[in-house]
Specification:
The complex is a heterodimer of chains A (249) and B (647).
Chain A lengths: L10 E8 L10 E8 L6 H11 L19 E4 L2 E4 L11 E5 L5 E4 L2 E3 H12 L20 H11 L6 H5 L1 H5 L5 H12 L8 H9 L12 H5 L6 H19 L1
Chain B lengths: L4 E9 L3 H12 L4 E5 L15 E2 L13 H11 L6 H21 L9 E7 L2 E7 L9 E2 L9 E2 L5 H15 L3 E4 L1 E8 L4 E8 L5 E11 L21 H7 L6 E2 L4 E8 L4 E2 L3 H4 L3 E3 L6 H5 L9 H13 L12 E4 L4 H5 L4 H11 L8 E10 L2 E3 L12 E3 L4 E2 L11 H22 L7 H20 L7 H15 L6 H18 L13 H25 L15 E2 L5 E6 L8 E6 L17 E2 L5 H6 L1 H7 L23
Parallel strand pairs in B: 1-2, 1-11, 2-8, 11-19, 18-20, 21-24
Antiparallel strand pairs in B: 3-7, 4-5, 6-7, 9-10, 10-11, 12-18, 12-22, 13-14, 13-17, 15-16, 16-17, 22-23
Helix pairs in contact in B: 1-4, 1-11, 2-3, 3-11, 5-15, 13-14, 13-15, 14-15
Classes of the chains: A alpha+beta (249), B alpha/beta (647).
Chain lengths: 249, 647
Amino acid sequence: MTGNGSGASRRLRFEIFRYNPEDAKSVPHMQTFELDEAPYMSLYIALNQIRETQDPSLQFDFACRSAICGSCGMMVNGRPALGCRTLTSDLPELIRLHPLPVFKLIGDLSVDTGTWFRQMVEKSEAWIHSKQAFDPEAQEERMDDELAQAIYEGDRCIECGCCIASCGAANLNADFTGPAGLNRMARFMMDPRDSRADADWFEVVSNSDGVFGCIGMMACHDVCPKELPLLEVYAYLRRKVLTTKISGL
Amino acid sequence: MRSGLISTDVLVIGGGLAGERCAIEAAAAGHDVMILSLVPPRRSHSCAAQGGMQAALANCVKAEGDNTTLHFLDTVRGSDWGADQEVARIFAEEAPVAVRELAHFGVPWTRVRGGKNSYVIKGERVEIEERLENDGLIMHRDFGGTAKWRACYAAAATGHAALYAVDSEVVRLGITVRDRTEAVELIHDGSRCWGAVGRCLRTGSHFAVLAKATVLATGGYGRIYGQYTTNATINEGMGAVIAMNTGIVPLGNMEAVQFHPTALAPSNILITEGSRGDGGYLLDKNLHRFMVDAEPEKQELASRDVVSRHMKQHMRDGKGVETPYGPHLWLDLRHLGEQHLTTKLREVFDICRDFVGLNPAHDLIPVQPTQHYSMGGVRVNKDGQAYGMAGLFVAGEASCWDMHGFNRLGGNSLAETVVAGRIVGQMAAAFADAASLDVEASIALHALKRADARVSAWLERSGSGPNIYDIRNAMGETMMSKVGIFRTGDELVQAVDEISALLADCDKAVLRSKVPGMNPELTFALRLKGMLRLALVTAKGALLRTESRGAHYRSDYPLRDDAEWLNRTLVRWAAEGREPTFSYEPVGEIDLPPGHRGYGSDERIEMRQSIEQYNSDAYQQQADHGRLATKDAPGSRMRRGDWRAQA
């Protein structure tokens, strides 16, 4: 993910998926655009240039343009990635862009990740189940910094949807919790502020929509823009499930 | 065009930290709450806040002796005495509670590690023994313009962690969120707000939401500086626009615009102040640490306005590194070491790697000062209630509450979102408690009709008019070059003329795409006029304010002028009005008398009045300017004179 693109003088060709569901005349197709490459050109810069100078109807999503808001997941030459931090200098001259699969299409490269992630949070109850009400007078509960760092590691997910799009199981089973959802569960399981015991998690984690729905291709681990250690997350979840079951025998 | 009419108790416009924290308060009070958000709430710009959240918990050695009064003092000095001191006081006192509440919601705050710790302080590596009895409490890092280490943080993703925790609470409480929705007009009767018209950014259709209480929490207006901002593309100031369009609600201190010292060149992505707080240096093209000469006491950690001016001046003096994108300076983090950079400053490490292909453990980082924060916003009283408009509340960066005055301290805005969210949410909930939706539906239908008419006007205009993106780019160039870090009367006159001309162009601009649905070109066109109106009142406010205060620096009036300008700018401009109207109100009652900030220039024009004279009618004057009555009497939380024991 480096490449400063200095000295770039390539003519880039973009093939972009087009379909506007709000337009009765629109049919899904690929449209080609050409652009001169510039130093440090990201897909954020390139797509805005295409919209502003060639086709103002082109739909895509960016917000922070610094790889923290998770708005701009898209398929870049067949691989899910954040558009904002994908530099054209790391890509061949032909750049094919599709919307992320699994999510509902809004138009062109724009997909509805918000609805998907809200239902994931609801389904897994991905919030702290507090032991007691907040006491505004009290000092904060202590936490070992090592543990805080471990929780933070899982908390770093930006819900961009790249892992979901890359996931064979999520593409086949709409109820599969998906990598981001499993990561979210693990994050709350390891948080001592959450009152749920391992046994409470057992039902949601251990079935075929949970960690055992994963078919182990681990594309999620490869495409995650935040480099979350998803391999370790699943190992943690499987270990938790097994120890819960064994200790219950 | 499809339209609809719905109702709720409390309507919150904006799904960032301030809006969501308000929504939680209202929902917990038993109200039906609806959030409208441009993006899924977790993608709001709060998520991009990196370095920390200021709260005087005094948990680590370098924070020993810290308290809310010191936080109050730093905030008022940081504001260059432009802040409302009662609000700064309320804020400082509530911040520890709000930060601890976030821990309760699940934020993985970095914690104190009892025993030996190694820090870089003012260029020296030092070993400090953290107290074992504080092990596991919330840790602090140093930030600019503060007497103590006070910023609580989660690596360099504090906003992200806070936003996810707060949004989890929103989901837990079952609060309705309509994402990909923009509020395009407030529904009001001239003195009472009754909700807003929304535009669905999936389909392009309008709908009206009638509400007993309405909260604006739409963030800042950094995008009036075009690409010269660290802000997200969604920070276009539309909350301020729809409030100003009423002609009744004033915007406060729009000329108070913060430039952050360290935006990554050339993309203007933020590099947190925490990187200097943790010991980073600023270097010039000769690799000289010029901030030590410029500010021997605070060095790189003077306030942002002061550091940005030194940087800009240094580049003007030919000490910047020249590139085809313009000059930049260097941020040096190499001495912090890879271990620190990949943990406590991990997001900085990632940004450098991803966007410029650098490793900050080995390479210098190219930085330049860039627009970052809007101190100005919709003027509200200490309860967060908008001037002149009952039932309309504003919180966070969208508001001018006004704890920041003319310069915000790093970490204070992230804390403000949750502190104000708690307070304003309670006030909005209490207002809704006492209200009924006793309003004619026609008022909403008229607003809907106007929204539809604005869309039709754009779609019907044809021929060869100006392009909206060219107008936006020109606005950004004018704002950064003429309403930037250093300002002069001549350039501000030019800026006002140029923006006025762009406003005229906007009325002639033509869309090239008329596709059905949200139509991205139409969506931006609908915002452009409002953005230009914000740009104009910002430039004009800067022209009228003939002094230098905080981030507003006039090279032709280089002194802070407490005799003439110890006040807050208010501007009103109805959607159909020809010209904006400016007026000035006292900043509030003064507790800490104006003086030297402890950094920057020590020269100023002193007040002519006594503090007692200034204070005698300050609140009455504010009421005359539209301030609505507050729950508790104005000034009731001042704790006058408490600062004497600390100063």
